[in-house]
Amino acid sequence: MTTTTLSKVERRPFDTLGHADHGWLNARHHFSFASYYDPARMGWGAIRVWNDDQIAANSGFPPHPHQDMEIITYVRSGAITHQDSLGNKGRTEAGDVQVMSAGTGVRHAEYNLEAETTTIFQIWIEPSRKGGAPSWGAKPFPKGERSGQFVTLASGFEGDGDALPIRANARVLAATLKAGDSVDYAVGEGRHVYLVPATGAITIGDDAFGARDGAALLGGQTVTITAQEDAEIVLVDSE
Question: Which of 67, 69, 97, 199 is deepest in the core (most CB within 10 A)?
């Protein structure tokens, strides 16, 4: 009798992702979302959503509600302007990150008020506990600080003091690598890591990944990520 084991590194090519083009919004979905449904891609551990969004100039998402979800927006180009029912308002530029803990419930809007297309990764992580007062925060993370290494942008762990807080046993990290440079990443037992090169091309071991491809990594391994060309990488490590 033969048994089938899950690959410890699964490639999810960009052209296989869910796709919805609304005119003002051109979205790719790494996991099932809205009208895109794939029972094999319902999430990865506590990571529920990873959307690759292109938002046209002077457009955006009107006010809508969320509850019991950690929502992280990583701006790849342009800028996004947030406003919510808590009275928060802020503009987050390329390379920076904003975090919203929806908690017991919040309404928010996200607009591209720029004269150019804005591109973002929006990531949803299931919280480790439900409820709590909703909150929002944003922070600039100069790319130079993450040159050749992963820097934690958002975290639910004590000790990651410079990171934006989230209510999940998870971290959101980013790194920029020059062509030929490598970085190792240890995936703990029972953890789920998902990473996407925002730009450039990388290999993880012997597997090649282009810009905006997804990589799902099982726990209990250390991987070597090598840039085949200059690359910017976003990674989530979750339960």
Answer: 97
